[in-house]
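Appendix C: a fully annotated inverse folding record. The material below is reproduced so that readers can follow the format used throughout the book. The structure is listed first as C-alpha coordinates, followed by the designed sequence.
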Protein backbone atom coordinates (compact mmCIF):
# COMPACT_ATOMS: atom_id res chain seq x y z
CA UNK A 1 0.00 0.00 0.00
CA UNK A 2 1.22 3.52 -0.80
CA UNK A 3 2.20 5.99 1.90
CA UNK A 4 -0.82 7.86 3.21
CA UNK A 5 -1.46 11.46 4.26
CA UNK A 6 -4.41 12.43 6.45
CA UNK A 7 -5.77 15.92 5.81
CA UNK A 8 -8.31 17.91 7.82
CA UNK A 9 -10.57 20.66 6.43
CA UNK A 10 -11.14 24.11 7.90
CA UNK A 11 -13.72 26.89 7.89
CA UNK A 12 -16.19 26.54 5.03
CA UNK A 13 -16.57 22.77 5.35
CA UNK A 14 -19.27 22.93 8.03
CA UNK A 15 -22.71 21.52 7.24
CA UNK A 16 -25.97 20.85 9.08
CA UNK A 17 -26.03 17.62 11.09
CA UNK A 18 -22.28 17.12 10.85
CA UNK A 19 -20.85 14.53 13.22
CA UNK A 20 -24.21 13.46 14.59
CA UNK A 21 -24.28 9.91 13.16
CA UNK A 22 -20.86 9.06 14.63
CA UNK A 23 -21.68 10.63 18.01
CA UNK A 24 -24.94 8.68 18.29
CA UNK A 25 -23.10 5.47 17.36
CA UNK A 26 -19.98 5.91 19.52
CA UNK A 27 -20.13 7.36 23.03
CA UNK A 28 -16.54 8.68 22.95
CA UNK A 29 -17.49 10.94 20.05
CA UNK A 30 -20.50 12.25 21.98
CA UNK A 31 -18.24 12.89 24.98
CA UNK A 32 -15.96 15.03 22.78
CA UNK A 33 -18.94 17.19 21.75
CA UNK A 34 -19.86 17.64 25.41
CA UNK A 35 -16.28 18.58 26.32
CA UNK A 36 -16.18 21.20 23.56
CA UNK A 37 -19.54 22.59 24.71
CA UNK A 38 -18.30 22.91 28.29
CA UNK A 39 -15.09 24.56 27.15
CA UNK A 40 -16.75 27.01 24.74
CA UNK A 41 -19.93 27.62 26.73
CA UNK A 42 -21.84 27.14 23.45
CA UNK A 43 -24.71 24.74 22.55
CA UNK A 44 -22.79 23.30 19.60
CA UNK A 45 -24.93 20.20 19.05
CA UNK A 46 -28.10 22.27 19.10
CA UNK A 47 -26.65 24.74 16.58
CA UNK A 48 -25.31 22.17 14.09
CA UNK A 49 -27.70 19.26 14.55
CA UNK A 50 -30.88 21.37 14.61
CA UNK A 51 -29.55 23.44 11.71
CA UNK A 52 -29.57 27.10 12.82
CA UNK A 53 -28.05 28.55 9.64
CA UNK A 54 -27.12 31.96 11.03
CA UNK A 55 -25.42 30.48 14.09
CA UNK A 56 -23.72 27.77 12.00
CA UNK A 57 -21.80 30.39 10.02
CA UNK A 58 -20.48 32.21 13.12
CA UNK A 59 -16.73 31.69 13.51
CA UNK A 60 -17.01 31.35 17.30
CA UNK A 61 -19.36 28.36 16.93
CA UNK A 62 -17.94 26.90 13.77
CA UNK A 63 -14.33 26.45 14.82
CA UNK A 64 -14.85 24.17 17.85
CA UNK A 65 -17.73 22.28 16.18
CA UNK A 66 -15.91 21.46 12.94
CA UNK A 67 -12.78 20.55 14.88
CA UNK A 68 -14.75 18.06 16.99
CA UNK A 69 -16.11 16.43 13.82
CA UNK A 70 -12.59 16.14 12.34
CA UNK A 71 -10.95 14.69 15.44
CA UNK A 72 -13.80 12.29 16.22
CA UNK A 73 -13.35 10.79 12.76
CA UNK A 74 -9.61 10.52 13.42
CA UNK A 75 -10.06 8.90 16.83
CA UNK A 76 -12.59 6.43 15.41
CA UNK A 77 -10.28 5.44 12.55
CA UNK A 78 -6.79 5.94 14.01
CA UNK A 79 -6.08 2.24 14.59
CA UNK A 80 -6.88 1.54 10.90
CA UNK A 81 -4.61 4.30 9.58
CA UNK A 82 -0.82 4.62 9.66
CA UNK A 83 -0.18 7.97 8.00
CA UNK A 84 3.28 9.07 6.91
CA UNK A 85 2.16 12.68 7.36
CA UNK A 86 -0.78 14.87 8.36
CA UNK A 87 -1.86 18.37 7.36
CA UNK A 88 -4.84 20.64 7.84
CA UNK A 89 -6.15 23.66 5.97
CA UNK A 90 -6.14 26.75 8.23
CA UNK A 91 -8.39 25.75 11.17
CA UNK A 92 -7.89 22.10 10.11
CA UNK A 93 -4.21 22.41 11.02
CA UNK A 94 -5.21 22.20 14.69
CA UNK A 95 -6.83 18.81 14.03
CA UNK A 96 -3.55 17.69 12.41
CA UNK A 97 -1.63 18.76 15.55
CA UNK A 98 -4.08 16.76 17.66
CA UNK A 99 -3.69 13.67 15.45
CA UNK A 100 0.09 13.93 15.89
CA UNK A 101 -0.43 14.16 19.69
CA UNK A 102 1.28 17.54 19.95
CA UNK A 103 -1.24 18.85 22.54
CA UNK A 104 -3.32 17.10 25.24
CA UNK A 105 -7.04 17.04 24.42
CA UNK A 106 -8.21 19.59 27.02
CA UNK A 107 -5.54 22.14 26.07
CA UNK A 108 -6.22 21.52 22.39
CA UNK A 109 -9.95 22.20 22.80
CA UNK A 110 -9.24 25.34 24.86
CA UNK A 111 -6.94 26.62 22.12
CA UNK A 112 -9.44 26.02 19.29
CA UNK A 113 -12.31 27.61 21.26
CA UNK A 114 -10.15 30.66 21.99
CA UNK A 115 -9.09 30.94 18.33
CA UNK A 116 -12.74 30.92 17.22
CA UNK A 117 -13.67 33.54 19.81
CA UNK A 118 -10.75 35.85 18.94
CA UNK A 119 -11.37 35.61 15.20
CA UNK A 120 -15.10 36.21 15.73
CA UNK A 121 -14.36 39.35 17.75
CA UNK A 122 -11.73 40.65 15.31
CA UNK A 123 -14.21 42.52 13.14
CA UNK A 124 -12.90 45.24 10.85
CA UNK A 125 -14.93 47.04 8.22
CA UNK A 126 -11.73 47.73 6.26
CA UNK A 127 -10.80 44.03 6.05
CA UNK A 128 -12.11 41.94 3.17
CA UNK A 129 -11.51 38.60 1.44
CA UNK A 130 -12.37 37.26 -2.02
CA UNK A 131 -11.87 33.95 -3.81
CA UNK A 132 -10.25 34.20 -7.25
CA UNK A 133 -11.00 31.33 -9.64
CA UNK A 134 -9.82 30.29 -13.12
CA UNK A 135 -6.60 32.31 -13.07
CA UNK A 136 -3.08 30.98 -12.47
CA UNK A 137 -0.77 32.02 -9.66
CA UNK A 138 1.28 34.46 -11.74
CA UNK A 139 -1.88 36.28 -12.88
CA UNK A 140 -3.20 36.59 -9.32
CA UNK A 141 0.20 37.74 -8.04
CA UNK A 142 0.20 40.42 -10.75
CA UNK A 143 -3.28 41.63 -9.79
CA UNK A 144 -2.29 41.77 -6.11
CA UNK A 145 0.88 43.76 -6.85
CA UNK A 146 -1.09 46.20 -9.06
CA UNK A 147 -3.79 46.65 -6.38
CA UNK A 148 -1.24 47.32 -3.64
CA UNK A 149 0.55 49.89 -5.80
CA UNK A 150 -2.65 51.59 -6.98
CA UNK A 151 -4.32 51.86 -3.56
CA UNK A 152 -1.34 52.02 -1.18
CA UNK A 153 -3.15 49.43 0.94
CA UNK A 154 -2.14 45.97 2.14
CA UNK A 155 -3.42 43.00 0.15
CA UNK A 156 -2.00 39.52 -0.30
CA UNK A 157 -2.76 35.98 -1.44
CA UNK A 158 -4.03 34.44 1.79
CA UNK A 159 -4.76 30.95 0.45
CA UNK A 160 -2.94 29.07 -2.30
CA UNK A 161 -5.69 26.42 -2.54
CA UNK A 162 -5.09 24.88 -5.97
CA UNK A 163 -3.45 25.92 -9.26
CA UNK A 164 -6.71 27.69 -10.22
CA UNK A 165 -8.13 28.75 -6.86
CA UNK A 166 -6.75 31.47 -4.61
CA UNK A 167 -8.08 33.71 -1.86
CA UNK A 168 -6.94 37.32 -1.53
CA UNK A 169 -7.15 39.16 1.78
CA UNK A 170 -6.50 42.70 2.90
CA UNK A 171 -7.91 46.23 2.84
CA UNK A 172 -11.35 46.39 1.21
CA UNK A 173 -10.23 48.99 -1.35
CA UNK A 174 -7.29 46.85 -2.48
CA UNK A 175 -9.34 43.61 -2.57
CA UNK A 176 -11.98 45.37 -4.68
CA UNK A 177 -9.21 46.52 -7.03
CA UNK A 178 -8.03 42.91 -7.43
CA UNK A 179 -11.60 41.74 -8.11
CA UNK A 180 -12.09 44.43 -10.77
CA UNK A 181 -9.03 43.14 -12.63
CA UNK A 182 -10.17 39.51 -12.65
CA UNK A 183 -12.94 39.66 -15.27
CA UNK A 184 -10.80 41.11 -18.10
CA UNK A 185 -8.48 38.11 -17.60
CA UNK A 186 -11.51 35.77 -17.90
CA UNK A 187 -11.34 34.73 -14.26
CA UNK A 188 -14.01 34.86 -11.58
CA UNK A 189 -13.99 36.78 -8.28
CA UNK A 190 -16.26 35.88 -5.35
CA UNK A 191 -16.36 38.12 -2.25
CA UNK A 192 -16.38 36.02 0.94
CA UNK A 193 -18.78 36.65 3.83
CA UNK A 194 -16.21 37.05 6.60
CA UNK A 195 -15.82 39.66 9.34
CA UNK A 196 -12.17 40.51 8.68
CA UNK A 197 -9.18 39.87 6.41
CA UNK A 198 -8.10 36.46 7.74
CA UNK A 199 -4.52 35.25 7.16
CA UNK A 200 -3.30 38.83 6.82
CA UNK A 201 -1.79 41.54 9.08
CA UNK A 202 -5.37 42.56 9.97
CA UNK A 203 -5.37 39.56 12.33
CA UNK A 204 -2.26 40.72 14.19
CA UNK A 205 -3.93 41.56 17.51
CA UNK A 206 -5.93 38.33 17.60
CA UNK A 207 -2.79 36.43 16.64
CA UNK A 208 -0.75 38.00 19.45
CA UNK A 209 -3.48 37.13 21.96
CA UNK A 210 -3.57 33.52 20.76
CA UNK A 211 0.25 33.33 20.80
CA UNK A 212 0.29 34.37 24.49
CA UNK A 213 -2.05 31.52 25.27
CA UNK A 214 0.04 29.06 23.22
CA UNK A 215 3.00 29.78 25.53
CA UNK A 216 1.03 28.34 28.46
CA UNK A 217 0.43 24.96 26.80
CA UNK A 218 2.41 21.70 26.78
CA UNK A 219 3.73 21.27 23.24
CA UNK A 220 5.01 17.73 22.60
CA UNK A 221 7.13 16.56 19.69
CA UNK A 222 4.81 15.20 16.97
CA UNK A 223 4.31 11.44 16.66
CA UNK A 224 3.48 11.93 12.96
CA UNK A 225 5.07 14.61 10.71
CA UNK A 226 2.77 17.66 10.56
CA UNK A 227 3.15 19.67 7.33
CA UNK A 228 2.46 23.29 8.26
CA UNK A 229 0.47 25.96 6.39
CA UNK A 230 3.11 28.63 6.98
CA UNK A 231 6.16 26.67 5.72
CA UNK A 232 4.57 23.72 3.84
CA UNK A 233 7.14 21.56 5.67
CA UNK A 234 7.08 19.33 8.77
CA UNK A 235 8.88 20.15 12.03
CA UNK A 236 10.29 17.53 14.41
CA UNK A 237 10.10 19.64 17.57
CA UNK A 238 7.02 20.66 19.54
CA UNK A 239 8.64 23.98 20.40
CA UNK A 240 9.31 24.71 16.72
CA UNK A 241 5.69 23.85 15.92
CA UNK A 242 4.50 26.28 18.56
CA UNK A 243 6.60 29.16 17.20
CA UNK A 244 5.38 28.57 13.63
CA UNK A 245 1.75 28.18 14.74
CA UNK A 246 2.01 31.61 16.38
CA UNK A 247 2.38 33.02 12.85
CA UNK A 248 -0.50 31.06 11.31
CA UNK A 249 -3.28 33.62 11.81
CA UNK A 250 -1.41 36.35 9.91
CA UNK A 251 0.38 34.13 7.35
CA UNK A 252 -0.74 32.63 4.05
CA UNK A 253 -2.00 29.04 3.74
CA UNK A 254 0.44 27.36 1.35
CA UNK A 255 -1.78 24.38 0.53
CA UNK A 256 -0.54 23.74 -3.02
CA UNK A 257 3.06 23.59 -1.80
CA UNK A 258 2.12 21.47 1.23
CA UNK A 259 0.49 18.79 -0.92
CA UNK A 260 3.33 19.00 -3.44
CA UNK A 261 5.85 18.41 -0.66
CA UNK A 262 3.89 15.47 0.72
CA UNK A 263 3.85 13.95 -2.76
CA UNK A 264 7.60 14.56 -3.11
CA UNK A 265 8.09 12.81 0.23
CA UNK A 266 6.33 9.68 -1.06
CA UNK A 267 2.66 10.13 -0.13
CA UNK A 268 0.28 8.86 -2.77
CA UNK A 269 -3.00 8.28 -0.88
CA UNK A 270 -4.72 11.31 0.65
CA UNK A 271 -7.55 10.70 3.11
CA UNK A 272 -9.64 13.72 4.12
CA UNK A 273 -11.34 13.40 7.52
CA UNK A 274 -14.16 15.95 7.78
CA UNK A 275 -17.36 17.06 6.03
CA UNK A 276 -17.90 17.98 2.36
CA UNK A 277 -14.71 16.66 0.69
CA UNK A 278 -13.39 20.13 -0.23
CA UNK A 279 -9.72 19.23 0.28
CA UNK A 280 -10.01 15.96 -1.68
CA UNK A 281 -11.16 17.95 -4.69
CA UNK A 282 -8.36 20.50 -4.26
CA UNK A 283 -5.74 17.74 -3.97
CA UNK A 284 -7.05 16.13 -7.17
CA UNK A 285 -6.54 19.50 -8.90
CA UNK A 286 -3.09 20.07 -7.37
CA UNK A 287 -1.85 16.61 -8.42
CA UNK A 288 -3.95 16.29 -11.59
CA UNK A 289 -0.95 15.35 -13.76
CA UNK A 290 -0.06 12.41 -11.49
CA UNK A 291 -1.60 9.05 -12.28
CA UNK A 292 -0.49 7.29 -9.10
CA UNK A 293 -2.55 9.18 -6.50
CA UNK A 294 -5.75 8.30 -4.68
CA UNK A 295 -7.96 10.77 -2.80
CA UNK A 296 -10.65 9.68 -0.34
CA UNK A 297 -13.13 11.74 1.65
CA UNK A 298 -14.55 10.41 4.93
CA UNK A 299 -17.11 12.66 6.58
CA UNK A 300 -19.72 10.32 8.02
CA UNK A 301 -20.14 7.03 9.89
CA UNK A 302 -21.26 5.36 6.67
CA UNK A 303 -18.10 6.49 4.88
CA UNK A 304 -15.86 5.15 7.69
CA UNK A 305 -17.25 1.68 7.02
CA UNK A 306 -15.99 1.62 3.43
CA UNK A 307 -12.56 3.14 4.15
CA UNK A 308 -10.55 -0.10 4.40
CA UNK A 309 -12.04 -1.36 1.13
CA UNK A 310 -11.15 1.97 -0.53
CA UNK A 311 -7.57 1.87 0.79
CA UNK A 312 -6.98 -1.70 -0.41
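Designed amino acids, in order:
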Amino acid sequence: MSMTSIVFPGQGSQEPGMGRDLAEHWSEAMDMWKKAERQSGLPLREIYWDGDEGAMAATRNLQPALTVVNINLWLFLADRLSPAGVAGHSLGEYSALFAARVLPVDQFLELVCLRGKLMDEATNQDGRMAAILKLDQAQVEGLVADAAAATGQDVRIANFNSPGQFVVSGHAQAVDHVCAGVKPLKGRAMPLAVSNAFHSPYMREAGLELAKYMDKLDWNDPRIPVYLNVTARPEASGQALKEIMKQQMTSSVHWVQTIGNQYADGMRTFVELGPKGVLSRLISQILKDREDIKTLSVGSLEQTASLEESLA
